[in-house]
Amino acid sequence: MRATSQRLADLGITRATLLVDRARCEAKIARFVQRARMSGVALRPHFKTHQCAAIGEWFRTAGVTRATVSSLGQAAYFADHGWDDLTLAVPANPAEADALADLARRIRLGVIVDHPATVAALPGPLQVWLEVDVGDARTGVPWDDHAPLADLAARVEAAPTLELVGLLAHAGHAYRTAHRAATFHATRERLQAARSHLQRPGLQLSAGDTPGFAAVPDWSGLDEARPGNFVFFDLMQLDAGACTVADLACAVACPVIGVYPGRGEAVVHAGAVHLSKERLDDGYGRLLGLTDGGFGDLLPGWTVAGLSQEHGVLAATGEAARAQLADLRPGDRVLIAPVHACLTGEQFGSYRTLDGAELPRYRRS
Ligand code: PLP
Predict the structure, then answer these.
(1) 119 pLDDT exceeds 90?
(2) Is the CB of 187 inside a 6 Å radius of any atom of ligand 1?
(3) pTM of the model
(4) Ligand 1 centroid vs 256 CA: distance in angstroms?
(5) CB under 8 Å, gap of 24 or more: what pairs does 74-83 form?
(6) Rounded distance, CA 36 to CA 58, Å?
(7) Does the C-beta of 89 come closer than 6 Å to ligand 1?
(8) Which in 272, 287, 312, 326 has the greatest CB count within 10 A?
(9) Is the CB of 345 under 6 A from ligand 1?
């Protein structure tokens, strides 16, 4: 803990700062690119996780040429940074039709739809995916609801400026099951079944969620894979068994501002506005070590037990953690592995790499 604090001080950490272990990110990008190649599937990673042009370049260097985003603002940001093939993977918003049209004139832009009124409102030229609900019950037409899917397909085909490219699903329920591989297989089968019923064998199939795609090495039978969180992974993925501690690549470095050995706690200046309020049964985050080689192991016995807007309450349980707590002082620094890296990232304007580079993120206006 002391060595981690010293290394964070050497990195210039004075306030809550989002650190990224670039070597770990690049290793995972390489792993997922390799899986996609071996499976004969195109990787269209979701960039909502990092929302950072520089991290996008790590993907591009690994051979990735297309990406997924979750807002028109993100799409414009990545288009400005040279990404010319993007899918906006939340249902298209008819209120943004003009802005969609503007962007669609600059890049190859894909959108997803699950309602006839959305199709009617879409400008062109757009690549259109029908969103299929394969069990998550968030958005999308249920995969076995054949008539509405056929109706949507016909409407898109009838629109001269729209191109029907395929069926797209996000198996968000893979986060809520221990059977991640089975969820992946069911997702693929349900997309294939929906396509057969549509009798359009040329339609592409796109799926993407980190738990399922981490669990199954062979993605063949799909055309596109859109996982995103894997570039960082986080405690939620660790808890789901989708990664190991050695995969965690994004964490919040922050200063200790209070030490209370009597109650077995310390307080850091990193609260809900830095970590987000995502939690697991054991709290809002865990302490991580920092070694000369990069992020290290989780520190046993330490959790972020409580959060207010600016404060994070660290609880120390067990002899080793209590001994570390006795040694802790305000001004020390700690590193917190977040529960959900995507939401933690949203709280910051930039990342800092372990060699001190500052990487700005897209900022919502
Ligand atoms: N595709 C869509 C439509 C999503 O909503 C998401 C995540 O929410 C993803 C892909 C990426 O999934 P993950 O965050 O599990 O990597």
Answers:
(1) yes
(2) no
(3) 0.96
(4) 34
(5) 74/47, 74/48, 74/362, 75/103, 75/107, 75/109, 76/103, 77/51, 77/53, 77/362, 78/47, 78/53, 78/362, 79/103, 79/106, 79/107, 81/53, 81/56, 83/56, 83/107
(6) 16
(7) yes
(8) 312
(9) no
